[in-house]
Batch of 3 targets.
Target 1
Amino acid sequence: MKVLASNKKAYFDFDVLDTVTAGINLLGWEVKSVKAGKISLAGAYIKNVNNEMFLEGANIPMWKFASSSSKVDEKRRRKLLLTKRQITVLAASVKQPGITIVPLEVIQDDRGLVKLNVALVKGRKKFDKRNVIKEKDIKRGIERDRKKYNI
């Protein structure tokens, strides 16, 4: 699987509880644009509407070779392709306080299909974010010392 785009901010702002892979209902030019790596997941979220999950806030700019005769919304709502069981589990989990659903990364599977890794997440407090930064710095220092002294 090839990662086409990643939501790095989500890994920093949230604790990932569970992940699900979902298909996305895209137009032809959107698929071309996504495979070219022209998608932004910053500020995107998943919304449940009438027992259907939708990706909102993701920006997919117009593919440069697409017909410019039609005006389309680059941040339009895109339907996620999930099973009914996955939808009910996600919808039930979101009802708990502090739990939300965010997109983590857009991937291309072995068959060439565009998929979206979605996660149930819980928000981090400011001090938790500081602890994460501190732990990463410590790990980086240890790895640097190991490499330096050939341990």
Target 2
Amino acid sequence: MADLAREARLEALEYRGGERWMATEAASEPLEDHLAELLADPEALVVVGIWEEAVVGYGLAQRVVRRDGSSIARIDELYVTPDTRSVGVGESLFDALKKWAQEQGLVAIDAFVLPGHREAKNFFETFKLTAHALIVYTQLDQEPEA
């Protein structure tokens, strides 16, 4: 699974916002330690997607308590290898994360999608997830001396 997470990170770098995500939100190495922490956390869920006896995807979600005291499920990562994206693995992963959220009594579910990753945005929209916030960003380069 850590190898798939590394593959997801390489793919993220191909999209607008990928470098920022890697520097800000993405878990850092060693990913095995991060995944072990999530597996031990009762407030998180780790799921894998299997196709033809191979692990080809994964999903990571955590409970997030909002300021009003209610809790939601935040999908931190949901990744499926490109060659298995059309066989329903992603849908199964999302369904498992959603079922967990419902069983936990969480009031909503959200996910982070890179702004340049249209395929991921469309995927989540099939489950009625829509954009509720945008993060705007610019790199601040050092000003040349006068």
Target 3
Amino acid sequence: MGQKVNPIGLRITVNKNWRSRWFAGKKDFADLLQEDLRIREAVQTRLKDAAISNVFIERYANRVRVTIRTARPGLVIGRKGEDIERLREQLSTSTGKEIYIEIDEVKNPDMDARLVAENIALQLERRVSFRRAMKRAIQMAMELGADGIKVMAAGRLGGAELSRTESYKDGRIPLHTLRANIDYGTATARTVAGAIGIKVWICKKAETAEA
């Protein structure tokens, strides 16, 4: 079971929270869901170099609050706040709603599963050895105090003719323990040989539900 269920979805209300927080009737639900997807896509596309870990969305009547978790807040805000204002205007135009943007800084990018996966993907695109990239990520997370970390890569690793799956782990990753604070992230490396999928599980010290 632990291998087939998203570890974050499995722990909703236990020690994780929803990434979209709003309520809608049957009539509006599909439209608002599509709007959420458009907002996330716009943020990820516009800020693809800003190390975006997560995008949280909250709705109040005709207002939308978008909280961006990033390891590079300066890149999101821009000079004198110009970039964040442009993003706000873009989202406001596409949704037709009042948009508020908040920035939440990720203090330790090497302990954030999504950012670790993206970092490995970036290295693979630069033709760094996949073993070296994965082992380096594991070493950094363990040094920063993670209880455990598991990294998996699948595809034509090292430009091989046949695709395969390789994984490395260190410490404990109790995927079936609901109280365990498991962070999970994925990324895709677009290499010359083809796409390589990266999955990262990080078991952190127990804490309360994510904000």
